[in-house]
Design a protein that fits this description.
With 304 residues, the protein is α/β, with parallel strands linked by helices. 36% of the residues lie in helices and 15% in strands. It folds into two domains: 2-92, Helicase, Ruva Protein, domain 3 (Orthogonal Bundle); 107-299, Rossmann fold (3-Layer(aba) Sandwich). It is built from twelve helices and nine strands. The strands form two sheets. The protein has a seven-stranded mixed sheet, sandwiched between helices. Strands 1-2 form a two-stranded antiparallel sheet. The radius of gyration is 21 Å and the shape is elongated.
């Protein structure tokens, strides 16, 4: 792309740079979905972060001119976004979830689960927030869900488990950034492995790998930059979900609940478990494929 060969000297203001960047993103056919869903929002977020400015910047500053070093830094990031198809969050090493900032890199998925809305609501009406004493986050990745739950339930102990040692290094960065070392405990293990055997939870929440083989084969390049371990889950997308369901009853307290995200694998999950009355949730900010199951429901299925 000729426009990316040299710094465009005619671009002066922040508004100029955002418009130009968005045009280049659209021209290159970029795919969004890692914090923004369109080229203009992506360009604005990239520019503001590069210039160390807040996302709610007052409109009067859109006409401010960039210095030469600022323009060069932003130009370099625009080029990387296009040429490497790197998701925005990997370029700026930041993602937002439940109103909280998280460090991210290519060792973890970019946080974007609709479960954020449930956390903000304290998982009501399925739980009494004041009675939640233990939470388990399975497949924690960056620990965004675990940390957000720790904020939502300050009285609760939160366990976060992941099979990936690399992911847990990122999770540890975030736990320390949020000062939650005493409340959030990280464990390396596969699903329930690595957790204290006697421990029971009022809430088990998981956004595990759930992309089926067919969808994995056609993923956009931006999504292929994320770790496959956090996405792929067998032919039907349920390899992890089955194992989470199989062990959940033994790990939940009497009135505990499981919140499980399976995205596009929702029809496959219903077909695999016809005796389970799944409660599928709706979200104001979009997203689907998240269900809630009670301990009682799970215990009624001995075949699990």
């Amino acid at each position: 792309m000729d426009a990316l060969q040299q710094l465009p000297e005619e671009l002066l203001t922040l508004r100029d740079w955002i418009r130009w960047s968005a045009s280049r993103f659209n021209q290159a056919g970029l795919v969004f979905g890692h914090g923004t869903d369109n080229a203009l929002d992506e360009a604005a977020a990239l520019a503001l972060h590069t210039l160390h400015l807040p996302l709610d910047l007052h409109p009067q500053y859109w006409e401010a001119r960039l210095t030469r070093p600022e323009a060069e830094a932003l130009f370099a990031r625009v080029r990387r976004r296009i040429e490497e198809r790197l998701p925005l969050s990997y370029l700026i090493h930041e993602a937002w979830f439940c109103g909280l900032s998280f460090y991210v890199d290519e060792r973890v998925l970019v946080p974007r689960s609709p479960i954020a809305e449930l956390i903000e609501q304290g998982f009501q009406p399925w739980l009494d927030p004041q009675r939640v004493e233990r939470v388990l986050d399975i497949g924690t990745g960056s620990a965004c869900i675990a940390i957000a739950c720790a904020h939502a339930f300050p009285q609760a102990e939160v366990d976060a488990v992941d099979i990936s040692a690399d992911a847990l290094e990122v999770a540890r960065i975030n736990v320390e950034r949020h000062g939650l070392q005493a409340q959030v405990q990280l464990h390396q293990g596969d699903i329930y492995q690595g957790l204290p055997a006697e421990r029971r939870y009022d809430l088990i929440v998981s956004n595990p790998p759930y992309v089926d083989a067919e969808d994995m084969a056609v993923l956009a390049e931006e999504f292929r930059r994320e770790p496959e371990l956090g996405l792929a889950s067998g032919d039907d997308g349920l390899d992890c979900a089955r194992r989470i369901l199989a062990g959940a009853a033994e790990r939940l307290t009497e009135h505990g609940v499981l919140v499980l995200e399976v995205g596009n694998s929702m029809p496959a999950l219903e077909a695999a478990y016809p005796r389970l009355a799944f409660t599928w949730l709706e979200f104001e900010r979009g997203g689907d494929g998240v269900c809630v199951l009670s301990a009682e429901q799970l215990r009624s299925l001995p075949s699990l």
